[in-house]
Amino acid sequence: MKQLLCIAAGLFAVAATAQDFQGVAVYQSKTKMTITVSDDGPPMDDGLKEQLAKLSERTYTMVFNKTESVYEEEAKLDKSSLMVGGYNLSIAGGKLYKNLKDKAYLEEKDLMGKEFLIQDSLETHQWVLSNETKKIGDYTCYKATYNIPQVQQPVENEGEEKEKGLLDLLPEPKDVVVTAWYTPQIPVSHGPSDYWGLPGLILEINHRGTTLLCSKITLNPKDKTEIKKPKKGQKVTYAEYEAIMKKKFEEMNEMNRPAGNQSGNTKMGTTTIRIGG
Questions:
Q1: Do 72 and 95 contact (CB within 8 A), yes or no?
Q2: Which of 19, 48, 131, 198 is in the most buried spot, having the most CB atoms within 10 Å?
Protein backbone atom coordinates (compact mmCIF):
# COMPACT_ATOMS: atom_id res chain seq x y z
CA MET A 1 0.00 0.00 0.00
CA LYS A 2 1.35 3.35 -0.96
CA GLN A 3 2.31 5.43 2.06
CA LEU A 4 1.13 9.03 1.93
CA LEU A 5 3.33 11.79 3.22
CA CYS A 6 1.61 15.04 4.15
CA ILE A 7 3.67 18.16 3.57
CA ALA A 8 3.08 21.84 3.93
CA ALA A 9 1.69 23.22 0.68
CA GLY A 10 4.27 24.53 -1.71
CA LEU A 11 7.28 23.35 0.32
CA PHE A 12 9.02 20.60 -1.63
CA ALA A 13 12.67 21.50 -1.02
CA VAL A 14 14.71 23.58 1.34
CA ALA A 15 17.86 25.65 1.13
CA ALA A 16 19.98 24.25 3.95
CA THR A 17 22.04 27.42 3.98
CA ALA A 18 19.15 29.41 5.46
CA GLN A 19 20.22 30.56 8.93
CA ASP A 20 16.75 30.19 10.46
CA PHE A 21 15.83 26.93 8.73
CA GLN A 22 13.73 24.52 10.77
CA GLY A 23 11.71 21.41 10.09
CA VAL A 24 9.29 19.19 11.98
CA ALA A 25 8.93 15.51 11.05
CA VAL A 26 6.44 13.02 12.48
CA TYR A 27 7.35 9.33 12.46
CA GLN A 28 5.11 6.29 12.96
CA SER A 29 6.83 3.32 14.61
CA LYS A 30 5.55 -0.23 14.16
CA THR A 31 7.22 -3.29 15.69
CA LYS A 32 6.45 -6.93 14.98
CA MET A 33 5.83 -8.97 18.12
CA THR A 34 5.65 -12.75 18.29
CA ILE A 35 4.27 -14.40 21.43
CA THR A 36 4.91 -18.12 21.95
CA VAL A 37 3.41 -20.03 24.90
CA SER A 38 4.55 -23.60 25.58
CA ASP A 39 1.93 -26.32 26.03
CA ASP A 40 2.49 -26.42 29.78
CA GLY A 41 2.83 -22.66 30.12
CA PRO A 42 0.25 -20.37 31.76
CA PRO A 43 -2.09 -18.46 29.41
CA MET A 44 -1.00 -14.89 28.74
CA ASP A 45 -2.86 -12.28 30.75
CA ASP A 46 -5.21 -10.12 28.63
CA GLY A 47 -3.85 -7.00 30.32
CA LEU A 48 -0.30 -7.88 29.25
CA LYS A 49 -1.49 -8.49 25.69
CA GLU A 50 -3.08 -5.04 25.66
CA GLN A 51 0.09 -3.41 26.99
CA LEU A 52 2.21 -5.16 24.35
CA ALA A 53 -0.16 -4.02 21.61
CA LYS A 54 0.32 -0.41 22.75
CA LEU A 55 4.08 -0.84 22.62
CA SER A 56 4.03 -2.07 19.03
CA GLU A 57 2.76 1.23 17.59
CA ARG A 58 4.04 4.66 18.60
CA THR A 59 4.28 8.18 17.23
CA TYR A 60 7.36 10.40 17.48
CA THR A 61 8.10 14.01 16.57
CA MET A 62 11.49 15.35 15.55
CA VAL A 63 12.24 19.09 15.43
CA PHE A 64 15.44 19.88 13.56
CA ASN A 65 17.58 22.61 12.08
CA LYS A 66 20.83 22.29 10.13
CA THR A 67 22.87 20.75 12.94
CA GLU A 68 20.58 19.97 15.89
CA SER A 69 17.48 17.89 16.49
CA VAL A 70 15.21 16.82 19.33
CA TYR A 71 13.31 13.55 18.95
CA GLU A 72 10.63 12.42 21.39
CA GLU A 73 7.48 10.34 21.63
CA GLU A 74 4.22 12.22 21.41
CA ALA A 75 2.54 12.58 24.79
CA LYS A 76 -0.16 10.06 25.66
CA LEU A 77 -2.80 10.18 28.38
CA ASP A 78 -2.07 6.52 29.22
CA LYS A 79 1.69 6.12 29.28
CA SER A 80 2.72 2.59 28.36
CA SER A 81 4.32 0.51 31.07
CA LEU A 82 4.66 -3.15 32.01
CA MET A 83 4.16 -4.62 35.46
CA VAL A 84 6.71 -7.40 35.97
CA GLY A 85 7.35 -8.96 39.36
CA GLY A 86 6.06 -5.90 41.19
CA TYR A 87 8.19 -3.52 39.12
CA ASN A 88 6.59 -0.82 37.04
CA LEU A 89 8.71 -0.81 33.89
CA SER A 90 8.19 2.59 32.29
CA ILE A 91 8.27 2.34 28.50
CA ALA A 92 7.75 5.96 27.46
CA GLY A 93 11.02 7.37 26.16
CA GLY A 94 12.39 10.80 26.99
CA LYS A 95 13.93 13.41 24.73
CA LEU A 96 16.83 12.53 22.45
CA TYR A 97 18.95 15.52 21.47
CA LYS A 98 21.55 15.19 18.70
CA ASN A 99 24.20 17.72 17.70
CA LEU A 100 25.74 16.71 14.37
CA LYS A 101 28.37 19.44 14.47
CA ASP A 102 29.76 18.23 17.81
CA LYS A 103 28.88 14.57 17.09
CA ALA A 104 27.30 14.33 20.53
CA TYR A 105 23.94 13.42 22.00
CA LEU A 106 21.92 13.70 25.19
CA GLU A 107 19.07 11.33 26.01
CA GLU A 108 16.64 11.19 28.91
CA LYS A 109 15.85 7.70 30.20
CA ASP A 110 13.51 6.53 32.94
CA LEU A 111 14.56 3.22 34.48
CA MET A 112 12.04 1.90 37.00
CA GLY A 113 11.20 5.39 38.21
CA LYS A 114 14.77 6.73 38.32
CA GLU A 115 15.73 9.37 35.76
CA PHE A 116 19.02 9.28 33.88
CA LEU A 117 20.60 11.65 31.37
CA ILE A 118 22.87 9.80 28.94
CA GLN A 119 25.64 12.04 27.61
CA ASP A 120 27.88 10.51 24.97
CA SER A 121 29.29 10.68 21.45
CA LEU A 122 27.17 9.84 18.42
CA GLU A 123 27.94 6.47 16.91
CA THR A 124 29.17 6.77 13.33
CA HIS A 125 27.39 4.28 11.08
CA GLN A 126 29.22 2.86 8.05
CA TRP A 127 26.46 3.54 5.54
CA VAL A 128 26.62 1.90 2.11
CA LEU A 129 24.78 4.06 -0.43
CA SER A 130 22.71 2.57 -3.24
CA ASN A 131 21.18 3.90 -6.46
CA GLU A 132 17.90 2.14 -5.63
CA THR A 133 15.06 4.64 -5.21
CA LYS A 134 11.43 4.78 -4.17
CA LYS A 135 8.87 7.48 -3.52
CA ILE A 136 7.69 8.33 -0.03
CA GLY A 137 4.94 10.84 -0.54
CA ASP A 138 6.29 13.48 -2.93
CA TYR A 139 9.91 12.80 -2.06
CA THR A 140 12.34 10.67 -4.04
CA CYS A 141 14.28 8.56 -1.55
CA TYR A 142 17.51 6.61 -1.92
CA LYS A 143 18.38 3.39 -0.14
CA ALA A 144 21.29 3.07 2.28
CA THR A 145 22.29 0.19 4.55
CA TYR A 146 24.79 -0.75 7.22
CA ASN A 147 25.52 -4.01 9.03
CA ILE A 148 25.64 -4.65 12.76
CA PRO A 149 28.01 -7.60 13.36
CA GLN A 150 26.64 -10.31 15.64
CA VAL A 151 28.71 -12.57 17.88
CA GLN A 152 27.98 -16.07 19.14
CA GLN A 153 26.41 -15.96 22.60
CA PRO A 154 28.22 -17.82 25.42
CA VAL A 155 27.10 -21.44 25.87
CA GLU A 156 26.71 -23.15 29.25
CA ASN A 157 29.24 -25.94 29.78
CA GLU A 158 31.09 -24.74 26.68
CA GLY A 159 34.08 -26.99 27.40
CA GLU A 160 31.96 -30.16 27.47
CA GLU A 161 29.99 -29.14 24.40
CA LYS A 162 33.21 -28.35 22.51
CA GLU A 163 34.61 -31.81 23.30
CA LYS A 164 31.45 -33.40 21.90
CA GLY A 165 31.72 -31.29 18.75
CA LEU A 166 28.27 -29.81 19.38
CA LEU A 167 29.48 -26.21 19.10
CA ASP A 168 30.32 -26.86 15.45
CA LEU A 169 26.64 -27.56 14.83
CA LEU A 170 25.54 -24.13 16.02
CA PRO A 171 24.67 -21.79 13.13
CA GLU A 172 26.90 -18.78 12.63
CA PRO A 173 25.09 -15.63 13.78
CA LYS A 174 24.06 -13.42 10.88
CA ASP A 175 24.77 -9.71 10.80
CA VAL A 176 21.77 -7.46 11.36
CA VAL A 177 21.09 -5.18 8.38
CA VAL A 178 19.71 -1.69 8.99
CA THR A 179 17.98 -0.18 5.95
CA ALA A 180 17.31 3.53 5.55
CA TRP A 181 15.56 5.62 2.90
CA TYR A 182 16.68 9.24 2.72
CA THR A 183 15.82 12.19 0.49
CA PRO A 184 18.43 14.64 -0.85
CA GLN A 185 15.52 17.05 -1.41
CA ILE A 186 15.87 17.91 2.28
CA PRO A 187 19.68 18.20 2.55
CA VAL A 188 20.20 17.69 6.27
CA SER A 189 21.82 14.61 7.85
CA HIS A 190 19.19 14.00 10.51
CA GLY A 191 17.05 10.93 11.06
CA PRO A 192 14.70 9.39 13.62
CA SER A 193 15.98 7.92 16.88
CA ASP A 194 19.79 7.67 16.83
CA TYR A 195 20.08 7.38 13.05
CA TRP A 196 21.96 10.08 11.16
CA GLY A 197 24.82 10.70 8.74
CA LEU A 198 23.22 10.44 5.28
CA PRO A 199 23.16 13.15 2.56
CA GLY A 200 19.50 13.89 3.15
CA LEU A 201 16.76 13.55 5.76
CA ILE A 202 15.99 9.92 6.62
CA LEU A 203 12.28 9.26 6.02
CA GLU A 204 12.21 5.52 6.74
CA ILE A 205 14.20 3.04 8.82
CA ASN A 206 13.85 -0.76 8.95
CA HIS A 207 15.70 -2.56 11.74
CA ARG A 208 14.99 -5.89 13.48
CA GLY A 209 11.28 -5.94 12.66
CA THR A 210 10.75 -2.28 13.56
CA THR A 211 9.79 0.26 10.89
CA LEU A 212 10.01 4.01 11.45
CA LEU A 213 8.16 5.84 8.67
CA CYS A 214 7.78 9.60 8.29
CA SER A 215 4.10 10.48 7.92
CA LYS A 216 4.27 14.28 7.98
CA ILE A 217 6.83 16.99 7.32
CA THR A 218 6.54 20.73 7.88
CA LEU A 219 9.41 22.85 6.61
CA ASN A 220 10.03 26.33 8.02
CA PRO A 221 6.85 26.44 10.13
CA LYS A 222 5.44 29.86 10.90
CA ASP A 223 5.83 29.27 14.64
CA LYS A 224 9.35 28.09 15.35
CA THR A 225 10.07 25.64 18.18
CA GLU A 226 13.16 26.23 20.30
CA ILE A 227 15.44 23.20 20.30
CA LYS A 228 16.36 22.66 23.94
CA LYS A 229 18.87 20.22 25.35
CA PRO A 230 17.37 17.77 27.87
CA LYS A 231 18.62 18.33 31.42
CA LYS A 232 16.71 15.96 33.71
CA GLY A 233 18.33 12.98 35.38
CA GLN A 234 21.60 11.63 36.72
CA LYS A 235 24.37 12.12 34.15
CA VAL A 236 25.89 8.89 32.88
CA THR A 237 27.60 7.59 29.76
CA TYR A 238 25.86 5.03 27.58
CA ALA A 239 28.13 2.25 28.92
CA GLU A 240 27.36 3.24 32.51
CA TYR A 241 23.61 3.25 31.81
CA GLU A 242 23.83 -0.20 30.18
CA ALA A 243 25.61 -1.56 33.27
CA ILE A 244 22.98 -0.08 35.61
CA MET A 245 20.15 -1.47 33.51
CA LYS A 246 21.73 -4.92 33.37
CA LYS A 247 22.11 -4.99 37.15
CA LYS A 248 18.49 -3.91 37.69
CA PHE A 249 17.16 -6.63 35.43
CA GLU A 250 19.37 -9.26 37.06
CA GLU A 251 17.93 -8.24 40.44
CA MET A 252 14.41 -8.43 39.04
CA ASN A 253 15.02 -11.88 37.53
CA GLU A 254 16.46 -13.13 40.82
CA MET A 255 13.39 -11.94 42.72
CA ASN A 256 11.08 -13.69 40.26
CA ARG A 257 13.03 -16.96 40.10
CA PRO A 258 10.77 -19.83 41.27
CA ALA A 259 12.14 -21.60 44.34
CA GLY A 260 12.11 -24.95 42.55
CA ASN A 261 14.39 -23.66 39.82
CA GLN A 262 17.23 -23.05 42.25
CA SER A 263 17.73 -26.79 42.69
CA GLY A 264 17.04 -27.54 39.04
CA ASN A 265 14.26 -30.02 39.95
CA THR A 266 11.27 -28.05 38.74
CA LYS A 267 10.29 -27.57 35.10
CA MET A 268 7.91 -24.78 34.27
CA GLY A 269 6.06 -23.78 31.13
CA THR A 270 7.45 -20.78 29.35
CA THR A 271 6.12 -17.74 27.55
CA THR A 272 8.45 -16.15 25.01
CA ILE A 273 7.83 -12.62 23.74
CA ARG A 274 9.95 -11.87 20.68
CA ILE A 275 10.15 -8.18 19.81
CA GLY A 276 11.24 -7.33 16.30
CA GLY A 277 12.85 -9.70 13.78
A1: yes
A2: 198
What dihedral do alpha carbons 100, 210, 58, 46 form, nearest 10°?
-150
Residue 238 lies in a domain: yes
Structural domain boundaries enclosing 85? 6-125+191-197+208-275
The domain tally of the chain equals: 1
Q: Is residue 152 part of a domain?
A: no
List Cα–Cα distances, 201 to 19, 185, 189, 241, in angstroms: 18, 8, 6, 29
CA separation for the pair 46, 52 (Å, rounded): 10
- 86 CB-contact burial (10 Å; exposed 0-12 / middle 13-18 / buried 19+): exposed
Domain membership of residue 203 (yes or no) is no
The verdict on residue 258 lying in a domain is yes
> Using CA atoms, how far apart are residues 215 and 174, in angstroms rounded to an integer?
31
Query: What SS3 state is found at 32?
Result: coil
pLDDT tens digits, 155-206: 555 555 444 455 555 666 788 999 999 999 999 999 999 999 999 999 999 9
Closest to 64 measured CA to CA, from 35, 100, 106: 100
Phi, psi of 269 (to 5 degrees): -65, 155
Taking the alpha carbons at both ends of the chain, their separation in whole angstroms is 21
* Residue 13 near residue 200 (C-beta atoms within 8 A): no
Neighbouring residues of 214: CB distance < 8 A, sequence distance ≥ 6: 5, 25, 26, 27, 136, 192, 201, 203, 204
What share of the chain in percent tops pLDDT 90?
50
Per-residue pLDDT band for 249 (boundaries 50, 70, 90) equals: confident
